[in-house]
Amino acid sequence: xxxxxxxxxxxxxxxxxxxxxxxxxxxxxxxxxxxxxxxxxxxxxxxxxxxxxxxxxxxxxxxxxxxxxxxxxxxxxxxxxxxxxxxxxxxxxxxxxxxxxxxxxxxxxxxxxxxx
Length: 116
Hints:
This protein is mostly helical. It contains four helices and two strands. A two-stranded parallel sheet has the order 1-2. β1 (2-5), α1 and β2 (26-29) form a beta-alpha-beta unit. The chain is extended. The relative contact order is 0.07. The mean pLDDT is 83.
C-alpha cells in the first residue's frame, strides 16, 4: 500500500515516515513543483481552506472539528460535483441505483421463462 503526498513539512517528518514504515505503507512523494501529480487532494485542500479555514475565526479546536465535520458531510453528500455532472453524491447514487434497478428488471423480463 502507498500514500501519495506532496513535499510539505508535514509529509517529510520523521514521525510520519516511521509510522508508515511500521504500518508497511510506502510514502510516495510527488515531484517538487508538480501539484498536478496529486490534483485530487490539492483541489480538496483548496476548497476546505477557502470554505472553513479562511472563512472563520476559531476560539478552540472543538469549533474547528465541529465545522469540519459539518463541511465534510455536506461536501460528501449534498455539494454538487463537476465530475458527477453537477449532481451531489447522494443524487448521483440514487439515480444510479434506480438506473441499475430498472435495467436489471428490464433484462430479467427479456429472458425467456424456462419450462414454457
